[in-house]
Amino acid sequence: MRSYFSRKLVTYGLTFFVAVTIDWAIPRLMPGNPIQGLIARMTLPPGASQAVTAYYEKVYGLNQPIWHQYLSFWTGLIHGNLGQSIYVVGSPVSSVIAQALPYTLGLLVPAILLGWYAGNKVGAMAARRKVLDNTVLPAGYLLTATPYMWLALLLAWVFGSVLRILPLAGGSTFGMPPSFSWPFIESLLQHWFLPFASLFLVGFGGWAIGMRNVIIYELEADYAHYLEALGAPQRLIRRYAFRNAMLPQITGLALAIGAVVAGALVTEIVFAYPGLGSLVFNAILNSDYFLLQGIFLFIIIGVLIANFVVDVVYVLVDPRTRIGMQGGRT
Amino acid sequence: MSIFKRRRGWAGVGAVAVAAVALLSTGGASAQQTPLAANYPRSQTLYTSGTQYGPPSNWNPMVTGNYATGTIGLLYETLFLYNPLNNQFTPWLAKSGSFTSSTVYTLTLRPGLAWSDGQPLTAADVVYTIDLGQYTAVPYHNIWTYLKSVTEVNTTTVSLAFKSTPNYQEWANFLYTYPILPKHIWQSRSLTDIITGTNPNPIGSGPYLYLAHDQTTMVWQRNPNWWGIKALNLKMAPKYIVDVANQSNNVALSLLLQDQLDLSNNFLPGIASLVGGIGGYPITTYYPKAPYMLSANTAWLVMNLKRTPLNDPVFRRALAFAMDIPAVVRSDYNYIVKGSNPTGMLPTWSQYVDQTLVKSLGFSYNPSKANQMLKSAGYKFGSNGMVETKSGKPINLSLIVPQGWSDWMAGIQILAQGAAKAGIQITPSFPAYNSLVAQRNSGNFDLVINNDQQISNTPWSYYQWMFGLPILKTQSYRNYGRYNNPTAWSLVQQLDRTPVTDTAGMKSAIAKLQQIQLSQMPVIPLWYNGMWAQYNTTTWSNWPSSSTYQTVPTLWRGYPNMGSVYMLAKIKPVKAG
Amino acid sequence: MSLLVDDLHVHYRTLSGDVQAVDGVSFGIADGEIMGLAGESGCGKSTLGNSLIALTGRMRYVAGTVELDGEELPIGVPDKMVPYRFRSVSLIPQYAMSALNPTRKIGKLTTELLRSRHVDPRAVLPEMVRRLELVQLSSDILDRYPIELSGGMKQRTVMVLSTLLNPSLLIADEITSALDVSTQKAVAEMLVEFRTRGFVKSMIVITHDLSILYQIADTIMIMYAGMMAERASANTIVAAPRHPYTKMLIASLPETGVRFDESRLAGIQGRPPSLLGPPRGCRFRERCPVAYERCAEVPPVIEVAPGHLVACWRAG
Amino acid sequence: MPALARRPAMSTRREVLYFAVRNRKLVIGLSVVLAFVVIAVVGPFLARYSPNTIGPDVRMAPSAAHWLGTTSFGEDVFSQFVYGLQNTFVVGLLGGGIAASAGMVVGFVSGYRGGWIDEILNMITNVFLVIPTFAVLLIIAAYLTVRGVVVEAVFIGLTSWPWAARAIRAQTFSLGGREFIGIARLSGLSSWRIIFTEIAPNMASYLFMTFILLFGGAILIAATLDFIGLGPTTGGSLGLMMNRAVLWSALQFGMWWWFIPPGVAIMGVVGGLYVMNVGLDEVFNPRLRAM
């Protein structure tokens, strides 16, 4: 078991290193200079613009040779310093992200987990009931084939524009200072609901179908037939099938996280939700290297942690891998 | 493992479903009520948006393109205000200011000015602020190219000596553009901090105080001790101003329609069809009919004069005739903007337009004429009907605007279609803003649209942008097309040194510049971008309009000191609160 | 007689129509008898075996009766069969290696299975431990997952599990085909031991492997194309077969006759007929060296000697 | 074993065909996809306006003159729709094709060769799986000034192969242990030959299904990129239609005809592909066939 995890940790470590390096490099390989853009918005007279450029390059360390920037990036990272944002001028990247992160996590974590959970439940139910199968299956296919933002658009249109019962944009009512008061929490929940629903529904559809299909495979497995021959009731067989079908679904969860993150990014843009998605979008438009790096770092760490958790859960749930790791016979 | 236990799981899902239903039912009720009651009383709060496209993070007036909405105007104040709608300078922090000799300007401050921390605002602050400009990286460094010295005569009087004939136009511009800073706070700061710092917890002199901010909002609170209450008998109407940062105009439109915004300074596509009660929305604008909006600046087609065939004035003039501006005004903007005068002069500067020149050298969309001009100039045309160079190489001009600037993105597609009718092939493309800046500044482009120069006290600002010399390797500020005409540049400088009161002198210099501009066509004026302002009259009324009072209706950077601070005093709450 | 099968017809549904996989088979098995069931692939032997316990998806009961210990088994009605399964009729499947749920420990699986059949596991588990020891498995395996066991161990576990409730009839379907020769022998001997100890009353052992049957079976039934060809004591089948097919089958084996799989049967010309619409008369006719005009009629099953049944005109 | 197994008359190919035409999921999925293909192919001949020509009738609801109404600029939504649909198929085929090829190469080599090659390829696959490739796509897209549909498809293809590689690796791995591969190996055939003549044909159905999933995936990714405004700058697309509909406040003005059709088409095509895929699974996998 230890060797398994140390091996995993090495993989994760290497992946982290490579991924972060790529995310560091890509913005810098692209044309355009963030400082130039910043200065351009200031419309400064010629002399001033050069001098100000020099100041900002120094502030952001962009006057250093590229290898030095790379090294400083890692040293900064180790000290928990992600640098200064360019888009949100003068704010440390970490504080910019810290403001947006709760919104994104608040959307993503429930949407992923509830979507996964409910999808698997309903998928398993569909596999055993014809009526449910005939309704859940088509609905599931349509949902999982729906682009996140289009579902978001539809929900926004119906609930925000036509019925006008839910807000169309933002994370809470603009200008309402955050507090632990009921009006603020209510406002938070109202703004949260539609983006959450669009993420949840798409995920739900995919998981429901996946579960339904895997269960059908499992019900055709030898152990199911054997149990049937020994007169075991369908209830027991279904329970085993469900349990075994969960395993590929757990692995699938790890693979799906990247896609859901992408979905969250666009959904946030549709609803102008103040999470990482809107931030990424603006960081890109403003060539904000530091903010981009910082957000990526969080996404990468998030995805890695999620993957690791899934790995651990999988090991706990599937005796085959667990036994394999204990050196048991395979 | 709990994930396999059914009951608990369903209970969880059930709870979420119940919560969702509860949300939906209560959401319906509260979204229509006033959800803000608890915090900023709705009837005393002005909600606005349109300036801030990112989170407010910076209250440093030196960071000119990024400071939070209202930093200059609501918080820090200028010596004068300038109202471009009636071409009037109004003393603000200054009681008066005038040239007491040909090279000396004497400035008198109002008595009783104070900073929000209680310290008096005196001549020393003015001297400190102007002196800061000696540093190259300070945005108004250019004043020291003609300024010799600044001295404090007494606590309310400052004397400024100029090196020679003052650059009257630039100086007048400075007086209402840059604010006076509190010396007692700023003098201890490092230069880097002054140039690039965020200036949190700012101490200003203006009618509003910093109250709070978060990722999407900036909240200002009325300054009860503001000097202007007594001195100007002005009282700002809203107790709170909440500026909403948003990324998209369609979101702003939603908020405006839902009464969550009172003043939207965003470009709102299709707003024309909603103004005047269509659809029952209480939305109004400055003008009740087209163009609905005042004009804020000119959108210019900047051509790279270093490239063939754009180095040929004949080609450039033909291109001007191929710009289907009426189609842009109609289809892109639904008539909320106006096509530009051939000189590019904003409507407020119409007195400076040389009408005879415009008659002889002006242009309007005429594809067949453009085509004819190219033919008679010896340009060849390919089998597809598209113009080629005189040596028979195909011409395909790339026209760039920044990614995400939706009205321009649509606009250049319309322009490209119109130009094709004249036989000129234009390919629109949309690089990211910074990428566009890099291409533009380094001269690596064919065509780009630019509107950096805003409405101001003087057409000089337009001409120095158009003809500015010298041409550097990187043109970071002006003359992106790299038009090299020393005659024109000296005329611009001559204009600069013409006193603002000498209208005749200004006109004569400008006429000469317009002669060069229209015949050489270094840039092509397209349309006037609107001074976007949409008012929701549910909570606040008495907005600036052609029929009420003439004040610029936007809180964009630079506009409070062009008079919109008056708007804040003149609007009236619909319900007393 | 513990088992009496009378004129059983079971069809196998396919795209092109019903395959008459078991087409009128009758036989009986005495208490304590081990009957071997042999024949080429597709002769219907597995279908016959399965139909006695659980019809799978594509099998369809058509006609005939099955009586076990004097009680008729409702084999055509799956729901009604449930009470008999495991308790009266049990199965050691072909796929014994993968018959155990991979994510359950064997003990837990057994407990859950027993509970689902309303048997108190505490009453049965000590016996299970004894029987595991009998097949040389430690009781530790109850605390293990199937993946921790070798193929042979899994096989033996399934044997013990399937016979835990002392069924009257055990159907052992190709249980040795996946094992190596020495294990085969051990497993076969255990089957006999199970019978001897009374864990099962009677047994049908379905296999390709005549040599195994020779070792353990009391009687052997040879099937051909959905019908019974010959049935007799194991010695008689090997030493004195009467049906031409049996003769050829025995002859085609190497001396120490191990298995007759597809390739070895090359000795017999031709292929079995399609059971979609089988020919009238004797189904072996096409390949039979001694066929004559009479064979166009279905040959009756004749008892040529006590307990020796042959379905061939020539046998009479 | 049933007698069927011995009957050579019913060849595997015929059997697959037999089940294929009777599988409801396959038939429905394929019909939906084909219906959209027909619209994409025939549509341009029916369209009476060119997709980006501005017209005098703005914000018109669907009518006889404009079947799907007009945009804020008076462009014909139907014309944009059919051309966008064409591009959707181009992106899907090309992006899905590139991803499938990359996934196959990596998966085959990794699964067949094993050893350190496998370790390295596995690592690369993992990195790609963990990196938010969509975010990387965003950055790349943002900086490519001129982007065509083809460029977009290539980038999508190059970033969406990892899960396919992983799945194909596993399949190859299990096939590699089979007897016939061992025989091929002993006979001295080169690795590539074994992969392409022995392994790939044995996984043909699996590979085809992988391609279909990648096809649908590429369409979704492209739609997302386009929606953010980072899609093709030349030519239209369904995602771009939605992007412009949002930017120009179609939601607020109730111009549902501007943003509903593109979404329906994407959902239809991708959903059709997915349903088809399950149908194919049932056709190729005898255990799942219902009689």
The low-confidence parts of chain C are: 256-264
Q: Radius of gyration of chain B from the CA trace?
A: 26 Å
Radius of gyration of chain C: 20 Å
Shape estimate of chain B = globular
Q: Please, how many helices of chain C?
A: 9
Mean pLDDT of chain C: 85
Counting DSSP E segments of at least 2 residues, the number of strands of chain B comes to 23
- The average pLDDT of chain B is 88
- What is the CA-CA span between the terminal residues of chain C? 26 Å
Structural class of chain C: alpha/beta
Name the CATH superfamily classification of chain C.
P-loop containing nucleotide triphosphate hydrolases
Helix content of chain B: 25-40%
Can you lay out the helices and strands and say which pair or pack?
The complex is a heterotetramer of chains A (about 325), B (about 575), C (about 325) and D (about 290).
Chain B: H1 6-32, E1 45-49, E2 80-83, E3 88-91, E4 94-99, E5 104-109, H2 123-132, E6 147-154, E7 157-162, H3 168-177, H4 183-186, H5 191-196, E8 208-213, E9 217-222, H6 227-231, E10 240-244, H7 249-257, E11 263-264, E12 283-284, E13 295-303, H8 313-321, H9 325-332, E14 338-339, H10 355-361, H11 367-376, E15 380-381, E16 387-388, E17 397-400, H12 406-421, E18 426-429, H13 433-441, E19 447-450, H14 460-467, H15 486-496, H16 503-520, E20 523-530, E21 534-536, E22 540-541, H17 564-570, E23 572-573
Parallel strand pairs in B: 1-10, 1-11, 17-18, 17-19
Antiparallel strand pairs in B: 2-3, 4-5, 5-7, 6-7, 8-9, 9-10, 11-21, 12-21, 13-19, 13-20, 14-20, 15-16, 22-23
Helix pairs in contact in B: 8-11, 9-12, 14-15, 15-16
Chain C: E1 3-14, E2 17-29, E3 34-38, H1 45-51, E4 59-68, E5 71-72, H2 78-81, E6 89-92, H3 106-116, H4 121-134, H5 151-162, E7 169-173, H6 181-196, E8 202-206, H7 210-216, E9 219-224, E10 227-233, H8 234-239, H9 244-252, E11 302-305, E12 308-310
Parallel strand pairs in C: 3-8, 3-9, 6-7, 7-8
Antiparallel strand pairs in C: 1-2, 1-4, 4-5, 9-10, 10-12, 11-12
Chain D: H1 12-22, H2 24-46, H3 77-113, H4 115-130, H5 133-143, H6 149-159, H7 162-176, H8 179-186, H9 191-202, H10 204-228, H11 238-247, H12 256-284
Helix pairs in contact in D: 1-12, 2-3, 2-12, 3-4, 3-6, 3-7, 3-9, 3-10, 3-11, 3-12, 4-7, 5-6, 8-9, 10-11, 10-12, 11-12
